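Q: I have 232 residues here and want to know how they pack in 3D. Can you give me a structure?
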Amino acid sequence: MGNLSAMQIETLDHVALWVEDRDALANFLTAHVGMHVIDRTDKFTLVGADARRGKLTLFAAEGERDPGVLARVGLRVFDLDEALAALPAGHPVERTDGTAELDAPGGLRLALVEVDEGVAYDLDHVAFLVPDPEETFAGLAELGFDVEGGRLLAGDSAILLEPGDPGETERPLYNHLGLRVESADDHIEEAERRGLEIADVVDAANTYAVFVWGPDRIKLEYVEHKPTFSLT
């Protein structure tokens, strides 16, 4: 069943993080996890396997970060053994059938998920730790995500909600989910109509976006790619 509200998410564009040492994390991801640096500015580093698929935005921040609400980020791979062989020798890994979890620099938990199709090292899922997964699911389902077979989806990427108490932190690792939409203006109007808490509106060179606070303070960015979008 698709979400029929005025909010319509096309794809999971990126996951944005606050990181103490963005170069350390970017170097790990580019050397061992099939990504490349797409863009680097004074404020952030953008990494991914494909600029038009799921990416990680690494914002420079001070101090060691607390994972908090972010449980892990899942990346797709076609051959799990091959993907694990690309990791540094002896890097700790927890492996289950078709999936392996590991810690990357900066407190980021990664999952490598073996799949048959798609784009290697694209975003497979993002998992959040929340007190009441059913309540959070219901809240997010009203904010443009699709619900299919009991799963919450942004395009072909899943949003997983796991029970737990993320606790309070002044230095969160999680910044926001970037959700690609056709029109940022439509989402601004809809957020205002519903009385949602708008955190910011940003008109940048390649994108135009509105940031909204979702349930459990999970910040969402509804981002429109401008015709000039030229990242590679």
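Q: Anything worth noting?
A: The domain at 11-225 is CATH 3.10.180.10 (2,3-Dihydroxybiphenyl 1,2-Dioxygenase; domain 1). The mean pLDDT is 94.
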